[in-house]
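Each record in this resource describes a single protein on a pair of labelled lines. With that in mind, the following record should read easily:

===
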Amino acid sequence: MPAVSLSPRRQRGGRYIDPTMATTSSTLLDSRAMMRTLRRMADEIVELNGGTDGLVLIGIQRRGVPLAERLCAIIGERESVTIPTGALDITLYRDDLQTVGPRPVVGPTRLPWELEGRHVVIVDDVLYTGRTVRAALDELADFGRPARIALAVLIDRGGRELPIHPDVVGKAIDVIPGDHVDVYVEELDGRDAVVLARRSEEK
C-alpha cells in the first residue's frame, strides 16, 4: 500500500512550512538605525539604574550576548567606566525543552563575578511569549541574589504568555501570529538588521 501524506506541509528547521504560503519581508531597523537604538537604550539603562555603580549586563544566548557587549561598550565610553558583561544559556531551564531538539545546548553560561547586591540587566534580542526571560530568571536564581533585575530588549513584538514586561525597549511592534522577527548582528551574521517576515497566502 503506497504511503499517504497526511499534510501538504514540509518541515524546515523544526517548523512546518505550508507551501501555499509566501513570505514577504521588510526591514524594521538597518545597521545605522540599530546603532542609534542601542545608544538610546544604553542611556536609558544608566538612567534606570541611577548610574553605573554595581551595574552588570547579562546577554541571553545567542544574540543577546553581542547586544549586551555593545551596550556595555557604549556605556563604558560615555561614562568612562568598565561595565561587567556575561552570558546565559537558558536552554536547559526552559519549560518547553522537549520542543528544542535532541541537542539543545546553544552556548555557555558565563558569569565570572558575584551577583549579590548587583543591579543586573538581562539583555535579549526579541521579547515574545516571555518564557525565555522566565528561564533566565530561574537560572540567575542559582547564581545569587541581585539587588535588582531589569530587562532590556531590542525588539518587543508582543504576544506575551507570561506577565513579563521589559524595562528598556529598543522598538515595540505588533506582530501577528505566524509572522516572525529576525535580528541579525555583525558578530554572528555578518550584518546588522532587524527584519519582519510576514507569511501571506499565495493566490
Notes: The chain is about 25% helix and 30% strand. Residues 1-20 have pLDDT under 50 and may be disordered. The helical segments are 31-48, 64-79, 131-140, 186-189.
